[in-house]
Amino acid sequence: MRGSDRRSGELFSYVDLEQRVRADHPLRAIRVLTDAALGALSADFTALYSGTGRPSIAPEKLLQAFYSIRSERQLMERLEFDLLFKCKT
Where is the Transposase InsH N-terminal domain (predicted)? Predict the structure, then answer.
């Protein structure tokens, strides 16, 4: 089952994710292009998923599990301070 693509402010409870990335960051332009491309492929992706079963997992939850981050609070701290997640131009 294909999970929803809703962006939840609940995980990022005290600061919205959009506020963490500066307005002129190069990834914003890339995001527009990839969102358009993935939107055009959405029907194809939906056809690949079963109509039953468990929905897909949100990327931030995968990030948290992959890097063994124990809580949402620690995830926020890592996103803010860890150079692994920083993109410098």
Answer: 16-86
The residues, any chain, with a CB within 8 Å of residue 63's CB and separated by 6 or more, are 69, 75
pTM above 0.70, yes or no: no
CB-CB contact of 3 with 56 (8 Å): yes
Answer positive or negative: Cα dihedral of 61, 66, 72, 78: negative
Element (H, E) at 34: helix 26-48
Task: Measure the N-to-C terminal CA separation of the chain; round to a whole number of Å.
Answer: 37
Amino acid found at 28: R
Tell me the residue type at 30: I
Q: Among 9, 23, 14, which Cα is nearest to 60's?
A: 9
Give, to the nearest 10 degrees, the angle between helix 59-66 and helix 72-81: 90
Whether 30 has a pLDDT exceeding 80, the answer reads: yes
Residue 1 DSSP symbol: -
